[in-house]
Amino acid sequence: MTAETESGTVSHRGAPLRVDGLKVYYHTRRGPVKAVDGVSFELQRGERLGLVGESGSGKSTIALALMMAHKEPARIEAGSVMLNGSNLLLDSSERIRQRRLSEIAMVPQGALNSLNPVMRVRDQITDGLKDHGVRMSDSQFRDRVAELLRSVGLDPSVGGKYPHELSGGMRQRVSIAMAISMNPSVIIADEPTSALDVVVQKQVVQTLRKVQQQIGAAAVMIGHDMGLMAQFASRIGIMYGGKIVEIGAASSIFKQPKHPYTKLLISSLPDTRWKRKLEGIPGLPPSLLMPPAGCVFHPRCPQAMDECKREAPVSRQLGDQHFASCHLYGDDDGVEAMN
Amino acid sequence: MRVSSEDVSGILLHAQGISKVFESGTFRKSYTNALDTVTLSIPYSPPTITAIAGESGSGKTTLARTILGLVEPTSGRVVYKGRELSDMKRNEYAEFRREVQVIFQDPFESYNPFYKVDHVLRTPIRRYKLASSKSEVDGMVENALRTVGLRPEETLGRHPHQLSGGQRQRVMVARAVMLNPKIIVADEPVSMVDASLRATILETLRTMNEELGISILYITHDLTTAYQIAENIVILYKGRVAEAGAVDEVINNPSHPYTKMLVDSIPHPDPETQWGAAEVEQAPDESIASGCSFYDRCPVRMDLCAAADPPLYQTDPHRISRCYLSDESPIYDAQDLYGVFDIPERRTASGGSHS
Predict the structure, then answer these.
(1) Any CB–CB contact under 8 A between B232 and chain A?
(2) Closest CA to A52 of B222, B268, B195, B275
(3) Is B20 exposed, middle or buried (0-12, 13-18, 19+ CB in 10 A)?
(4) Is residue A242 a contact partner of residue A296, using CB atoms and an 8 Å limit?
(5) Size of the A and B interface in Cβ pairs below 8 Å
(6) A236, A228 in Cβ contact below 8 A?
(7) Mind telling me how many Å the CA of A170 is from chain B's nearest CA?
(8) Gap between the Cα atoms of B243 and B234, Å rounded
(9) What is the pTM of this model?
(10) ipTM of this predicted complex?
């Protein structure tokens, strides 16, 4: 696969990940919970996308669906996930298992749950490689593990340890080392630092960025912390009620947010560089079982118009690579398609 | 209301030389200094907001729990209105428990999920006999909910899981406020709450402070919210005070290497203020038996630091720092951290309890 990231013009075929109209519903007795309801985005090689959302926005469900690791009652209803040009959703479970780690790998939320507690770090990393058909001598495996550990800032001696002997930050670095062990083209990181202290959080996120750049992978970081996103992501997608309501370059999302939700979210963030009266967003996140008609944000939106209660807004391009779904920027009426 | 002789000192709550050692292991005992001689006061007036900040294992929660009387200190004492907690008579302790309220990180963890919100709010009224009739109880509950920005008709009759995290946390603030407390200890009250609701809860706490004259002890790992809400801050590291003073000094111009490291790690919500490229690697562990507790992680450690733990130096009128880098400043002798706090002159709140 070749990287085709010439200035500005980007070939679709070269995109390691392209998600189109993805819908993931949880089927409950009371009806389908539309956790992901028509999400589309594309990632270029080396790009870092941050998907930000609050609880119930559908962000973690996307992470699971991209790894095809979602479980009943969650089902993929529609859409495609083109990974290196071939649709992951159409693959057999064996093929999906092979593509995980080698093409798309995950850095999970809490590394304690994802690492095997009774296996040394070295053996866990080696097992993953062997499972994907890598054949080397024991000493070559040893060298490869040492190299991976060094690349995430750990001493190779960590390979001989068990997960419980490591600090939370070290375990998360081990998870990163495992995720990059087969040079995947896409890395999914789901709240990778949620349980870590702030100093360690910075170290882990910077490590993730460093190795992502080294192997040239595209990365999706999923989370709720706008500060972390600002530090990590080159592009940011804002999720609300199962949809991406706005997506664009990190700098333009922060500097020129278009969607009223993004604007309110950004103005609610505390920082140490100024003091001001903090304003929350009035109201509550939408029920995904019975999402409001029209725009999902309209019940909380200070700028809601009549139209917003009837029609779901389509995603419109409002700047260079900057898209938002909001009627404030529409002049066409009643377009239904979600692209 | 009883007035005890110590009232004249102006100190409402005094935590004096609090140390807590946790013991673990059955055969080979090991001891952890969770908290090491911390002294802190909260005055009657003006109502203050003080942040206690640190990472996990810093002792911030142990300090909060000791002040609340939930943890018995290994040494030191907590004095409320001139009476030591451990010497209090039953009715004095009841008064203390009413006047010093707590808000936890996940408030409903300890509540029976089968009870409705109403139960959570009515129980304390009954326990402290704050109302004489059912309509009076209802009035108090509804008032308290409105004070924290919740609509009673949308909140009452619901079970905890039917509310959002932000609503649940505000119910807990309402419960605390109803009891007319003098102090609220808020232990990570917004760390599990979404960003859009976090601001509302912090503003609610600030309103309680400004309008009802309640002092707030804000326990957190997050320097940004501490900076927004508190006037003064105490940075704890492994049970010791690393730095303390006015938030503008400590956070905008940190003195202690540990505080610098914390401030440097803040992920600013601004792509143009990127993290400093400072070490991604951790300093190699080099444990020392004595000396500064930050030695093993300190980027600027000196030989001196391994020999003896530094004292607190007063680097500025409103800041102290436990680091030899400040050894040209005078040693801060007064134990009480309150002595360096910047207490803004404010209108004395009149919302205290009258009986």
Answers:
(1) no
(2) B195
(3) buried
(4) yes
(5) 126
(6) no
(7) 10
(8) 6
(9) 0.88
(10) 0.86
- Residues in chain A closer than 8 A to B200 (CB atoms): 278, 280
Using CA of residue B91, residue B93, residue B98, residue B99, what is the dihedral sign? positive
Top residue of A59, A194, A198 to mutate, by most chain B CBs within 10 Å, is: A198
Which residue of chain B has the CA closest to A229? B269
Length reported for chain A: 339
Is the Cβ of B222 closer than 8 Å to some Cβ of chain A?
yes
- Identify the closest residue of chain A to B202 by CA–CA distance: A278
Interface contact A197-B165, CB threshold 8 A: no
Per-residue pLDDT in tens (0 to 9) along chain B, 355 residues:
444 434 447 899 999 999 999 888 777 777 888 999 999 999 999 999 999 999 988 999 999 999 999 999 999 999 999 999 999 999 999 999 999 999 988 766 666 778 888 998 999 898 888 888 999 999 999 988 888 878 888 889 888 888 877 788 888 889 998 898 999 999 998 887 788 778 888 988 999 999 999 999 999 999 999 999 999 999 999 999 999 999 999 999 999 999 999 999 999 999 998 887 555 445 555 566 688 999 988 999 999 999 999 999 999 999 999 999 999 999 999 889 999 999 976 434 444 344 3
Distance CA B322, CA B339 (A): 15
Tell me if A271 and B195 make a contact (CB, 8 A cut-off): no
Cβ B194–A265 below 8 Å, yes or no? no
> B165-178 and B134-147 are packed helices; what angle lies between their axes, rounded to 10 degrees?
120
Nearest residue in A to B285, CA atom: A155
CA distances from B168 to A54, A55, A282, B158, B164 (A): 16, 15, 15, 11, 6
